[in-house]
Write a structure and sequence with these properties.
The complex is a heterodimer. Chain A is mainly beta. In chain A, about 0% of the residues lie in helices and about 55% in strands. In chain A, a hairpin with a 5-residue loop joins β4 (about 30-35) and β5. Chain B has strands at about 5, 10-15, 20-25, 30-35, 45-50, 55-60, 60-65, 70-75, 85-95, 105, 110-115. Chain B is globular and about 45 Å long. Classes of the chains: A mainly beta, B mainly beta.
Chain lengths: ~110, ~120
Amino acid sequence: DTAVSQTPKYLVTQMGNDKSIKCEQNLGHDTMYWYKQDSKKFLKIMFSYNNKELIINETVPNRFSPKSPDKAHLNLHINSLELGDSAVYFCASSQDRIGYTFGSGTRLTVV
Amino acid sequence: SQQGEEDPQALSIQEGENATMNCSYKTSINNLQWYRQNSGRGLVHLILIRSNEREKHSGRLRVTLDTSKKSSSLLITASRAADTASYFCATVPNAGGTSYGKLTFGQGTILTVHP
């Protein structure tokens, strides 16, 4: 069983569209995250949820909206996609700041 | 802002040689972690060292931490072609609140091991 699974793996879409990326973890972790990796491979945190409560919200355009229906799921919705949103988005989960597990990433390409 | 900075940015060695990567950070940490990323893949957790530890081993990996210099190193001994990947250090701050659990990554070192 995949510990942190995110879908889709690849997403190609046109500018202006709205899209969602889903993430689920079966590790029983209490905290989930979204990270963005740019074309230079730099990884930066976007959001973090602890037990469904938003605790980290970095400087991210408000076109990005995370939603956590329960502590095992953290979805990312992006409105009005722009070319600069093209990146690889990683979901991750952790327990007590120690055991971080990352998903395999969603490669988003905006054309 | 970026917490960790790594050097070298790229390292090319022959199989069997040792590879050393360094990481520096800026603020007080709870722990520091090293991750590997193969090309086009996700991140794999390698090893975690807590702020009160100075050295840790896992197989062919050895990590050191010097909190007075705010630096860490990752040593891979007897490297193999399969070790070719990008390696990232990441720090978890001591702070709570809105920084709780926030992993801040360095720029990464691209390691190439030639057979």
